[in-house]
Specification:
Radius of gyration: 21 Å
Number of helices: 0
Number of strands: 43
Strand content: 35-45%
Helix content: under 10%
Largest sheet: 6 strands, antiparallel
Low-confidence stretches: 1-20
Distance between the termini: 56 Å
């Protein structure tokens, strides 16, 4: 007799995992259109503290240096993972320690890394560039001073804003812009500010850069000339230490979790409003600190990992259950549970096949009996499953241009144009320390034609800074395609 899966009944419970541990989980009976599914964990060469998707679809990661190395002499091991072959290639950079850096992708697809590590709280002034075409690293120009835990933000012209980070003299308060045309730094001398480490910086629709946290005071930074800050207002909950932030639509920002003791509250702000003001949205299902937020092709936000325990990094309160926030209803839905705690130094990125890679956590290991996690898991979101639990067929993009101009209408070929309801693209991810410095989403207008679609690229680089994006088409059931990676600008 053939078994049929109906919508799986899921039980939310606390699973004992050894003395002192209580991991919140949701256990699906199979791949589910409501809960999704996690793959079996697989080995990763190191604790992937920094995790970036490259224009060729490969994923680069690097870890902390050997904890036994003398200050200034450690090297962060780096690897390149090929999702197609499931193989790893060592790409360690030996000229500097890239642990605790900021990172973003330049318009031509090279990876730009700011700062690095001498010892905790003391960074280096280096900039470093990785070229996916050659798997080679090169040194860039030095910044004004060292930066440990800085944040990179790609600007509308492709330049890179770098803020914060600490060094032997304390916090680096000088924002700087890496100018790609000249390969030099421009200092925003009128914008000195003592920001927290790894501030959650997001490019706003007017071209300024929004500081969404973790500080309660939120601001906009004008990066022209010598720079300048404008206060937007206070978020409502407080200092969201190791909370997460994401721009989920044009000018719309979600912040969630963080703090000590951590919170499950979440807030939103619309930067396109006449007077942008924070307001609470529905709280997450779980209290979380060290969580990651990942934009999905359908516009929803996946949250994974974190701990509900007070203190810096306690695994006893690890949250294994993931959850998804719907920006239309503002409701959080609990989905399937990962198998491994992902807390401090956990990372997550969207892959071109519309799944989410989750890895890292540890180095140093957390309290409560945690370890360094040398493995990874992949989440298959609910949209990849039919009601019977089997995999849904993904619409296919047979061909698409490799690059487009702003405002250009371009053709893509697909076998099922009549069934396509949405076209979205998401910038390639660059994840570390509970924040993704690069991801942003746009929904593209399109018309249907025989054998495909005519899609219009965004016209405003404030909304879509130049670089590489994953283009998805979604059918009437909300199932996304495997993406085509396209460069704009």
């Amino acid at each position: 007799m053939r078994c049929r899966w109906t919508f799986a009944l899921l039980t939310l419970f606390v699973l004992s995992a050894g003395p002192g541990r209580a991991f919140a989980q949701v256990m699906p009976t199979a791949g589910s259109p409501t809960q999704g599914k996690w793959t079996t964990k697989f080995a990763w060469p190191h604790v992937a503290i920094h995790l970036i998707v490259l224009p060729n679809g490969k994923v680069i990661s690097w870890a902390r240096e050997d904890s036994n190395a003398p200050p200034g002499q450690g090297i962060a091991p780096a690897t390149l993972w090929n999702p197609a072959t499931k193989t790893f290639t060592d790409v360690t950079y030996t000229a500097a320690d890239l642990f605790c850096t900021g990172h973003s992708l330049l318009p031509d697809g090279r990876l730009f890394v700011a700062g690095g590590h001498i010892q905790d709280n003391i960074g280096i002034p280096n900039s470093t560039i990785f070229d996916p075409a050659t798997n080679g690293w090169t040194a860039g120009p030095l910044m004004n001073a060292g930066r440990w835990y800085p944040t990179n933000t790609t600007l509308p012209n492709g330049d890179v804003l770098v803020v914060s980070g600490s060094n032997a003299n304390g916090r680096n308060q000088l924002p700087q812009v890496y100018q790609i045309a000249s390969g030099t730094w421009r200092s925003l001398t009128a914008a000195l500010l003592n920001q927290p480490l790894y501030p959650r910086m997001l490019l706003a629709p007017d071209g300024r850069v929004f500081d969404a946290g973790p500080s309660q005071t939120t601001r906009l930074l004008n990066t022209s000339g010598t720079g300048g800050w404008t206060t937007v207002g206070n978020s409502l909950w407080g200092f969201r230490d190791y909370g997460t932030a994401v721009m989920y639509d044009v000018g719309k920002v979600l912040i969630a979790g963080g703090g000590d003791p951590p919170t499950k509250t979440a807030e939103v702000i619309d930067l396109t409003a006449p007077t942008p003001t924070w307001r609470f949205t529905n709280s997450m299902q779980f209290v979380r600190r060290h969580l990651n937020s990942t934009l999905l092709p359908n516009g929803k936000v996946l949250v994974t990992g974190g701990t509900s325990s007070p203190g810096f990094n306690d695994v006893t309160g690890a949250i294994l259950a993931a959850e998804i926030w719907d920006p239309v209803t503002e409701v959080w839905t609990t989905v399937a549970s990962m198998k491994v705690p992902r807390i401090y130094h956990g990372t997550a990125v969207l892959l071109p096949d519309a799944t989410v890679l989750s890895t890292g956590s540890g180095k140093p290991a957390g309290s409560g009996g945690d370890t360094d996690h040398l493995n990874a898991e992949i989440f298959l979101p609910p949209y990849l499953f039919k009601p019977d639990g089997k995999r849904a067929g993904q619409p296919k993009i047979f061909s698409a241009p490799t690059s487009v101009s702003y405002g250009q209408t371009f053709a893509i070929d697909t076998s099922t144009p009549a069934k396509i309801r949405k076209v979205s693209w998401i910038r390639l991810s660059s994840s570390t320390h509970a924040f993704n410095m690069e991801q942003r989403i746009s929904f593209l207008t399109f018309t249907k034609k025989t054998g495909g679609l005519n899609v219009t690229a965004p016209s405003n680089p404030n909304l879509v800074p130049p670089g590489y994006y994953m283009l998805f088409i979604l059918n009437e059931s909300g199932v996304p395609s495997v993406a085509k990676i396209i460069r704009i600008g």
